[in-house]
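ugh ok fine here u go
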Amino acid sequence: MSAASDDGPDDGPDDEPAYRRPIPPPEGWTADGLDRIPDLPPHTELIDGSLVFRSPQTRFHGRTMRLLDNALLAQAPDRLDVMREMTIKLDAKNRPEPDILVFPVEANTGPDQTWYSPEDILLAVEVVSADSRERDREVKPRKYAAAGVPHFWRVEKDEEKGLPVVYVYELDPATKSYGLTGIFHDRLKVSVPFDIEIDLTAVDRRGR
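structure:
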């Protein structure tokens, strides 16, 4: 076997081909076409017709999602379901992927389902990452509110304690915008969209 030429392109470790982003059509990508774009990285979102790729996940992000997902599943009434990292088809040009969704069980359409409709979503949760601050703080909440999603949580990291801080928002249907109803450190306790109580200090604790 001959050695690789120094003049050739370096495709990365073990000569794996480098990922090449698909070239968008002139009018941009569409929500209906997102599932048909070949070889997209996992958890690619569509925002205003443009593809958004996710950076590697941090431990804080992963464990915060696990804590909230497990707690919501354990406390949700039987009529509701909880899902991590599934897209919402907001409109023709937008399919964001919240970290966690809460919705009625009837919104599940089958094992090959890849998205939910905004009218089915009761709660969307975004755990903020370094590369997603603007999207999670401004762009996505604005779009979720305009689509009528009644509840939104934004979760940030307390830089001193390393624990989640949950900012809870509720939709004002008259203005189609969110109002902040609470900021929760250490323990989250709310009564909508159902009774929820979560020990946020348990983010690094393993269940028994």
